[in-house]
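User: Fold this, then the next.

Assistant: Folding the first:
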Amino acid sequence: MELIRKGKVKEVYAIDPQTLLFVFTDNISVFDKIIPSKIPHKGETLCSTSSFWFEKLRYVGIKNHYLSSHGREMIVQRFEILDKPTREDVNYLIPLEFITRYYLAGSLYDRIKSGKINYKELGFKNMPEYGAPLPDPIFEITTKFEEYDRKVSVQEAMKIGGLSRDEIEEIHQIILKIDSMIDREVRKRGLIHVDGKKEFALNSEREIFVVDTFGTMDEDRWWDRKEYENGNIVQLSKEFVRQYYRVSGYYEALKKAREEGREEPPIPPLPQELVERTSKLYLEMHERITGRKLELGL
């Protein structure tokens, strides 16, 4: 097999012209930087969690690239990667990431707090607190293959992705349908689905397919439902890893370097205590998201 792409957390191999093999690693990344610390069993939890959701999509008839999985490996339908796709092209990976937010958290909160976004534009009458439910879901699009993800307008997304406005709206509706399914499923196990990203491709007939992975600890943000209802926000995603780098001052240094066009500072490793805590969280969250205990070493 040929290694055709090495991402932040998974390696992609070509099995043949029609299929790919995803190998999920134990790498962990934040702010588009790979942390020089391995998280035991992380790859297995990501593969199993994503497979769980793809099987759900198959059941409800949403087209996707999933074929099968085992351990930390997943076999999927292959789509081409084009430099500059157009509306005439077919069978290609859309070079964009689609994010939908349901609560005020993460970078959206940072943008409101810094004044880059006026909270009234989001439908709030007063300055909201972190964790507030959004009056309406927020749909955002970012680049995928640039040095680091950049938010783009619908018009720019249409140009970058070779998409029509109707196709972007169809993607939006598919995401809302998937997230509604996710929310119903995880609430039964005491979770709140806060936000998440998804990726898509177009097949030979330009039908929209869900690809890559979604609904995992890496792509999505989760909170404990009972704690939230009691007025507390308990992060159940790698957000607490991001917070470690925020508190340490690394994120501010990274952000400043990017704004000034300087060389980015290398990201330091996680303390061993945080490595162990992160591994335990990925295993526990796999069970809470899917309702299944991960069988290690198979």
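Now the next one, as you asked:
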Amino acid sequence: MSETPASSIDRQTPTIASSRPSQDTAFFAIRLAKNRWARILGVAFTMYLLAFVDRTNLSMAAPFVRDDLGLTPAGLGFANGLFFWGYILLQIPAGRLASTWSPKRVLLCQMLLWSFISLTTALVQTPFELALNRFALGLAEGGVLTCTLVLIKNWFTKAERARANALFLLTFPIAPMIAGPISGLILTYSHWRWMFAIEAIPGLVWALVWWWAIEDRPSDAKWLPLRERVELTAALATEAEQATETISGHWVSTLWHPSVLLLALYNFLALMAEWGVNFWFPTVLKETGLSIGLVGLLASAPSVLGIITMLAVASSSDRLRERKWHMIAATAVAGVPLIVLQFTGGGTWATVICLSIGIGAFLGRFGPFWTLPGEVLPASVAGVGIGLINGLGNLGGTVGPWFFGVAKTQTGSFSLALAAGGVSLLLSAAIAVLIRVPEARK
């Protein structure tokens, strides 16, 4: 007997219905690939997350590396601090190349280089080799943040930029949430050398995605809808014309611009505290008697508050079009818990709570902070200014871990170092009050 039309339709209906989810998924993926917030910030976020993991995973392996290589706490802090000496060398050259040539290409080269160097950390055998490896890793990652901020400045207007910077810099709270448990898991079942090898490979793979997805500016992006491309290019050009600040003479004069120097000094004092706390936080928890697996989980606790703080402060900063005082408030609030911790007895939960509040509040500064250089400097030299601010600021990264290690060696605890970190944050907030932010022309 032949089939009726109705029965034919009934048999075809499930096939049509089952194909619809895949069509919807494909349509959503296409729209997402053409959305600049998702494409530019998503790919850049993942890139910097991988860089952050490769930069900070030594802190998780610190107890094991110290034992295998025969390092004191001060010696390990010194070796880790050499990362920042390498990190500062390429800040200004990379920023200049990003502003005048191509942030996309500069970042691609750096991604390949730092991933390879991180992989070779698994091969170090002596304290000298570890110190040299950390210096080389810093050299390879130098300018990554600077170039990415130039890229964001090319893609987002002033009214969007604090949120764009904050979304990108969510890597700071999210990376520990990912790296801590993963590193803890690897260290629980394998050797610390395998941790460095395994965590370096994703950067080599992501370089392919970066080359495919990223363009230097909206006018180069054929994937961006034509109307949006034209309107965005025009809006960014108008903002550049309305800038009130100019740099007379050679671009090198950017290096002694008053606002740049104040931002660099502010960043130095703030990052001295941040990197000291972040690097030794797992060790502080480990010394309370916790297992390395539980340390990995608790080390991610500050990130939860940090994510909320970053998004809230950045949204408020964009809504009010105010940067400086948002940055100052977040920095000052971050310093208070580090000082209060000295009066709590230093128990495990008091340490976790106080440091979580301190690190979480500190992370809130990043959105408005990294928006400021683009508002006080012309576009042609913004990369140079950002490079100097980031480079000199990260000298604090050499001092922080080293000072915390020396304090631990001399006093037997991290109490003095944490208190000094709180004072450093309050002092940096006071210095930021002196920064002059010009008003844009109407």
